[in-house]
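Lab notebook, bench 4. Continuing the backlog of folding jobs that were queued last week. Each job is logged with the same field layout so the records can be merged later without manual cleanup. Today's entry covers DUF868 domain-containing protein, a 308-residue chain. Filled in by technician R.K.

JOB TYPE: sequence-to-structure
TARGET: DUF868 domain-containing protein
LENGTH: 308
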Amino acid sequence: MRDFAACFSENAVQVSEVSCSPHISSPSRSPSPSIQNMVTCFYLTEICGQPRLVAVSWCKNLMGQGLSVNLDDDPSSSHCACKVDMRSWFFWKKRGSKAFEAGSSTIEVHWDLFSAKYGPGPEPIKGFFVAVVADRRLVLLLGDMPEEARSRTNSAGSLPDPVLVSRKEHVSGKSLYTTKAQFTGCGRPHDIVIECRDQIGEFREPRLSVRIDKKMVVHVKRLLWKFRGNQTIVVDGLHVDMLWDVHDWFFNPSSGHAVFMFKTRENNCKSWTSASSPSSSSACIVSKLRHEEPESSFSLFIYAWKNQ
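JOB STATUS: finished
OUTPUT FIELD FOLLOWS
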């Protein structure tokens, strides 16, 4: 797939206001929703006085659930804190800890997923905790068991307040892809629906539509010709650059996937597509967020595979 941002022109950017967009009802026959296979969340926290990224990945397959925690934004890095396969017969792996050295610091990862409850996706929704400790200081805590986490880790200080700066989702489906996203720290979660369907009529022409909270914000006709593009929408008062690349859906269907990205920015900043030296790597995007205001920077990547 080509350089993601380089495929788009700043002149093509349009602005849509979510709260003012007309409600467009879905067809009477709704396709099946997508299935999340893997989710990776990037949290900006402070370790030994320095801003660091912690990547937490959840996966789900026929064999069971999986969890991995990585320091910084490279899942293939040697700083992989832990990787756990939570198969139904591996009860002892659902609760544990692991330590490793990162520079002059000792990093510990503690987890308790023994009583975790899951929704349709790979992420637990309650009854769990994942904690990252650096030099006996709790720097990242996920889940709804803070007291158990503090007792297990023997950590000092107040509970951490990390910032979610990016999220990557790997999903599969036929034509409908759904997720939720919170674009600001104080905002509410929004329902996002991405749909790619053939036009009903004499000429069957693929179309792309994106809805946020049931309101149409992006509608692309002649998708075979406009398989890459971008548009700016406004959510919670923030400008959000929405980019799509569905080239491989049509021209590499056997192994290709589409990429959708939502990236917040300040109202007076350039769109992400016009930034210098853009990169298609979400890891590079996340690394750039170190130098931005974290409360105004969030990106969502959706990698969508089409089931035939």
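OBSERVATION: Confidence is low (pLDDT under 50) at residues 1-16, 19-29, 274-283.
SIGNED: R.K.
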